[in-house]
Amino acid sequence: MEIYKLHYPENVEVDTDEQYSLAIGFFDGLHKGHYAVISEAKRKAEELGIRSAVMTFDPHPSHLFGDGKNKVGYITQYPEKVRLLRSMGIDTLFVVTFDWSLASLTPEQFVDVFMKGLNVKHVTAGFDFSFGSKGSGTMKDMASLAEGLYGTTIVEKVIDEDEKVSSTRIRKLLSEGNVEETALLLNRPFRTIGTVVHGEKRGRLLGFPTANILPDTNTILPANGVYAVRFIVEDKIYDGVCSVGVKPTFHSEGAIQAVVEVNVIDFDGDLYDKEAAVEWIGHIRTEEKFDSVEALIEQMVKDKNSAKEMLAVHH
């Protein structure tokens, strides 16, 4: 998959004569609804005999507007988005910098620069996609501005359990610790990517050594609690039990940022500084404060057994 990083107005040209069937959107989460859009663009590419392409934006618009006060955390980190699009067989990815220069373009200017300028022959987007200054352009405008140079397809909303599949819905589920339903909407387990870093090493003293994952600061995490997870490092997959939270048994409220710690089951080795991924499979319990270390250890044994049972079903 070819990747082009574009920035308006300095760098918006691509040195190729290829024609594209383009799926356009932010696509955070790459959930069922996004897959419907991208799959349709890919189908259209095959029909027209041209390259399939996806256009996404970085950062999320919420990081720019409102002084970033209401910025959303990412469901899908950039490396994960690239991995998933590559696995879908997409030929080309355009990553457009979302800044004030881009946000100030009129719908007409946006079409001239990115649709006509990139030799796009077909544009596919979701029913609620908007573009141009203040989101004033709709897919109807995308069609009316084409001047016969490209076609358009609007993909209607995807419904699951009588409710629209959306990134907002997935963020809410994660805030409730509901990783099981999140996986249904994503068609795969929710995944967090990060680097294994040194922690307090308290888990080792308790008999449960953990790998501390440092995820990107803009990444959303599930609600504080304990989960059954898969731990992926160097292309190997391990079972694990993961705690995300502030370790209230050892820290007063507000003392530390939420920490992601994975007790990797049946693993013995050095993981420090390695890139790793956590796939969240099942919620075991909410985070709680224990009266004694002994009570915590007793619960950790139960958590590990619960994780093994949950993960056995997913193998």
Please give the structural blueprint.
Layout lengths: L1 E5 L13 E5 L7 H17 L2 E8 L19 H10 L4 E6 L2 H4 L3 H10 L3 E7 L12 H6 L6 E5 L3 E2 L2 E2 L2 H9 L3 H8 L3 E8 L4 H4 L5 E5 L9 E9 L2 E10 L13 E6 L10 E12 L6 H21 L2
Parallel strand pairs: 1-4, 2-3, 2-5, 3-4, 5-6
Antiparallel strand pairs: 7-8, 9-10, 9-14, 10-13, 11-12, 11-14, 12-13
Name the average pLDDT: 89
Stretches where pLDDT is under 50 for at least 5 consecutive residues are: none
Give the proportion of residues in helices. 25-40%
CATH topology of the largest domain: Rossmann fold
The topology string of helices and strands comes to: EEHEHEHHEHEEEHHEHEEEEEH
Overall 3D form: elongated
CATH class of the largest domain: Alpha Beta
Number of strands: 14
The N- and C-terminal alpha carbons lie at a distance of 30 Å
- Major β-sheet annotation: 6 strands, parallel
Strand order of the largest sheet: 1-4-3-2-5-6
CATH level-4 homologous superfamily of the largest domain: HUPs
Number of helices: 9
Which band does the percent of strand residues land in? Answer: 25-35%
Compute the CA-based radius of gyration: 22 Å
For the record, the CATH architecture of the largest domain stands as 3-Layer(aba) Sandwich
Count up the domains: 2
Specify the structural class.
alpha/beta
